[in-house]
Amino acid sequence: MHVExxxxxxxxxxxxxxxLAENEQVIINITKAPNASAQSQLDIDYIESVRKELxxxxxxxxxxxVRRRLSKIPGEMTGDFIEAREGR
Length: 88
Fold this sequence. Notes:
The protein has 88 residues and is mainly α. The protein has three helices and two strands. Strand 1 (5-8) and strand 2 form a beta hairpin.
């Protein structure tokens, strides 16, 4: 979990709600923020919206399902892979 916080009276105060139980023990790595800005808050809001959207998405498809879906694509993709490798 990445959380921005403000240090006030030597106490860290998160800028967003935390999904933690009361008295739950955590490990914190602290990195001083360069100049906090509205842009960083926009980033946090976007990341949280994506997390909420993915909560109900269910598990990713397995290899068999991916192969089944790819088999429905007409033609071959070998040329695309070779072209991508040559472009490196």
